[in-house]
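Support case: iron/sulfur cluster complex. Customer-provided input:
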Amino acid sequence: MSELLSQAGFSLAEDPSSADVLIVNTCGFLEAASRESLEATLELAQGKGEKTLIMTGCVPSRYKGDLVSELPEVDAFVEALDEESIVEVVGAALKSKEIHTLAPSPEGETFPNKGWEYVKISDGCNRFCSFCTIPFIRGRYASRPSKEIYTEIEGLLEKGLKEIVLVGQDTGVYGSDFAEKPDELQSLADLVRYLAPLFNKFGAKFRILYIQPDGITDDLLGAFAEVDELVNYFDIPIQHTSSRLLKAMRRKGSAEEFRDLFSHIKKKIPGAILRTTAMVGFPGETEKEFEKLLDFIDEIGFDYVSSFAYSREEPGRAAYLEDQIPEDIKQERLQLLMDRATLVGERKMAAHVGETEEVLITGKEDGLSIGRTWFQAPDSDGLVSFEEELEAGKVFSAKLVEANGFDFVGALEGGV
Ligand code: SF4
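Agent response - structure generated as follows:
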């Protein structure tokens, strides 16, 4: 949406008070996330005055028409699957209010350069895990045509971006819905190989997030090994190691299968970074099952773990299971899981101290320039900070001189 707005000549205001349009892009995956989204919207609504307030994303998709009467402060809603209409909606909302302070910029490039961007390769999900509302919100799985992905990425790289992050709810099955289209790519491995020359031409990198365990095929690992521009970062949500619970989650796998999968990755791609997502407090989770999950985090040595406590969300089937875990136990297990994951992850990070890495500068924080190495994904992992004033969007070679938890202090190699 920011790309579309930028192309249409809109620019990003310094802060909400100086904006004409306020857009809250929401997450509605959990009730807690929906609540946070509503709070953010209401907070902005308080001082909005004549400004136009638009809510986009998964909350409008999940709650639909109910929101119109409940949030009269909001001028327009854009559901997740309609995000391409954002320019039209903003234009219409502004017209009805007769605010015309926005002049298109001559270059059509008015959002700050942070050097990287997410690109969606698919939307929706067919898995219907019993705890998840996403298939109900985002719909059935649909891969984006490969040419469309290529063109979007080409446009971003032409502007000088140095990293593209490929996302989707279930990236590993990219192309599986194109079986009837012989002219389309049929797998994620095909997509990686198709995009590789483009990244090579522009000297840029890409990473892929959210590959479900069964999406890791030998063909895909082959593509990871062949394509230097694809960083060896594996984001593979397992959710749990108990095959009993995984079955109740309507997911596949077991501790043995996941153990084999991760050792296979480590063997084929030495030095691979491993991220996973794990959930605690799913209905019926026993103390013993939880402890085995903790041990598994240690055993595999995950670099990063996103952890969640199960949240009872209708219409996911797990909401109707009887043996729900009390909230205090869920929170206690979540804390223990986060502590264990932090311990393991920080140990892994400390091993990078002394390495020289390319760091993409993404902006500023607390007066320091900040950036990311290939083994740090945006919005979830750590950062590298520098005392020097460095231009966002540029890549510098730097030595990681000190680790603070998941973050690093960088020292430029060879000056600016
Ligand atoms: S794979 Fe499962 S958890 Fe992930 S989006 Fe699909 S249904 Fe939800």
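Residues 99-109 have pLDDT under 50 and may be disordered.

Case will auto-close in a few days if no follow-up is received.
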